[in-house]
Design goal:
ATP-binding; 17 strands; transferase; metal-binding; alpha+beta; kinase; 36% strand; 303 residues; four-stranded parallel beta sheet
Length: 303
Amino acid sequence: MRCFFVYNPVSGRGKITKKLDYIVQKLKEKYDVVDVYATKGAGDMEKAAREAAGRYDAIVFSGGDGSFNEIVQGIGDTEFPPELGYIPSGTVNDIAHTLGIPKSVRGALKVILTGDNEMLDCMKINDRYAMYVVAAGAFTSAPYTTPQAQKKQIGRLAYGIEGIKKNLRFDVFDVAVKNEGARVETDSIFVILMNGRYVAGMKLNKKSSIRDGQIELAVIRQKKNPNVFKKIRAFLALAHLFLFGFRVPEKQIIRFTGKEFEIEAAESVVWNFDGEKGVCGNVKICVLPKKINMIVPKGSKNI
């Protein structure tokens, strides 16, 4: 079997570069050929994955949630995608938490060498892809606007600082959500669609599965030109969602579960895909069941 190992050399303070020889040595216990590539900038991992998809039996990659998104973008149009192995090295690693993949290099490699292959769902957004989250509104720009140097210095706290700097105004935008014939129109400060349990390091969707063929959607309502009280109320609703989860009732949150959604929004509304800047404006989002061939910990049942 042929394996392509691609990694982000700046993710996780460069720990993968330091352990590269060890990683290649371990991968050769499973694969006959292991070719290595270090990415050179944003979008490079997507390009590398797209080129490798038809030439290798496996793509093993290392980076954060954004790197995972680039891999999914790269193989999303492939009819028979290769198996994926993941060594988490990002700041938050939401997908690794959902899948139960250890953050340590040694632990992640054990999963790749001895784990089970599972076919996982992903999401398609217009002509793009996301693995576990699509979101717009308050704080959603922080993952891709936070400077890399700041992430290295203070880790996930950097996201919070960036979010506070740029999102305290809680801009209100119009959205119309259509799901299986139902249509809801509202003003909102935050919209999120989830295909996984963890978002921003928190177990936001703990009863969901990444292989159930379903997407969970939450919209936090807000009136235009809100007064101070309404701004505080919206902030509390956002905090409620992240602290208590998707399924705990909250009057200011509209919730849906389904396989396909159409969302109308202005071109000024920017969508975040797995921590990366995605598209703007209107989106059509659907689940692609059993699209991703992923190596997960042996015996995994609750993913």
